[in-house]
Specification:
- The chain has 141 residues and is mainly β.
- The protein is built from no helices and eleven strands.
- Strands 8-5-10-3-2-1-11 form a seven-stranded antiparallel sheet, with no helix packed on it.
- A hairpin with a 5-residue loop joins strand 6 and strand 7.
Length: 141
């Protein structure tokens, strides 16, 4: 039996809730059957952000849907490069590079992220502040 699913709504998948916001994986092998990449929606609350981290063995694309923020991506020498990000902006994070995102606006910063190869997002479940919220349920703040 195939795990293929072509259309996924955010309310159909679980939420990884954090102190800074939440993440919904809307495309991954367990959701759609995709094997080469994974993707989902990230919401960072106003004034919040996630810590500097990297994804060994994976590239990441971050597309800003709404809100405004600060994005840091280290260059090839490990020097932090910081940029203002707004809707329509695409951020490329090379494999293994350290990066962070901070919401600098008054409204939620909403992004769509893609990891290649798939799987980089699975480590987020192991973070101490990660709370898994069932599909259809609203995360408590």
């Amino acid at each position: 039996m195939s795990n293929e699913k072509f259309i996924v709504w955010p309310e159909e998948v679980e939420t990884m809730a954090f102190d800074w916001g939440c993440f919904k994986i809307t495309c991954a092998s367990e959701v759609t059957g995709a094997t080469k990449f994974s993707a989902g929606v990230v919401v960072v609350e106003p004034g919040k952000g996630h810590d500097r981290h990297n994804h060994p063995g994976a590239e990441e694309i971050i597309y800003v849907l709404s809100g405004e923020g600060e994005q840091m991506v280290e260059d090839e020498n490990g020097n932090p490069q910081t940029y203002k990000v707004t809707p329509g902006c695409t951020v490329y994070v090379p494999e293994g590079r350290y990066h962070y995102t901070i919401n600098k606006g008054w409204e939620p910063l909403k992004t769509f992220v893609v990891y290649s190869p798939a799987g980089a997002e699975k480590g987020l479940r192991e973070l101490p502040d990660c709370r898994i919220v069932s599909p259809g349920q609203i995360p408590k703040r």
